[in-house]
Amino acid sequence: MPTEAGPTGPAGPASGALLLCRAVPGAVAPVARLLREPVQLLRAGDEWSVLVPEGGPWRDGGEPVDRVVTGWATALAVGAPWPVLALWWDADHAAFLLASGFRRPVGFVWLASGVPVGEDEALRTFAARVGLDPVLDVGALDQLAKPDSAADAGSRLRGLLAVLARVGVSLPPGLAPGEPAERLREAAARRPDSLPVAWPVRRDEVAERDTLGHSRLGPWMPWTGDPRARALALAQVAAGVPLLAWGLRRRSGGWVAAGGLLLANGTLGLAYGLMYPRD
What we know:
Helix content is 44%, strand content 14%. The chain is built from ten helices and seven strands. It has helices at 25-32, 56-59, 65-78, 120-130, 136-144, 153-164, 181-189, 203-212, 227-250, 253-275, and strands at residues 16-21, 39-43, 49-53, 84-89, 93-99, 106-111, 195-197. A seven-stranded antiparallel β-sheet has the order 6-5-4-1-3-2-7, with helices on both faces. The model is unreliable at 1-9, 205-220 and 271-279 (pLDDT under 50).
């Protein structure tokens, strides 16, 4: 069952989040639109993309930012064949969480003052999953888990991104951890390569979908009719139902959105396969 990084209250105006996906924007857009949250999608390195959400659930609905973002990251990672790294912060905490397939998410939390409250083992598991060097890079990560009177939560996340640069992560200018969601989205929207993604799908995203069908991720997409796409759709439905039920019991908008995303995406994939069977 999903776990939470720690107890938080309602998110304040300084709350924000970034979702890093280890895939190119063309592969991320078809899945990201199912979040039903307006986001800006940009490249964040040769093999990475970043989603900058508007943040409605925590700005308007009073939902804790960590719960919302954890649900989004988990749903995106289960619904696609690439991992998702979520960075989030509010007035009291900052943290990261890595979601990858059906494996248990792993993350680390700092207080606003920069005091670490996570476990060192989580950093080592994280390093292994993203492919960091087990000696040099893990040593750099270990520094983020040690007390440092000169470091606050924002500098901890910037330190994490500095280590992730070794696996190709490069955030566009203006997307700095610690900024409120509205300011991040405005900065992302000003970028010439920024792609707004929302529900429903737009015509230019349909063109991207067709391009994606010819990529190495194509067989996993529902419109291909590939057996792997049907297997992924079944897995999404199987994961979405308990997540949705758990979110409803907890009255958690983030987990309800995650379960609903998986259930909707899986159902659409299965329906597409039935309506348009492969020749």
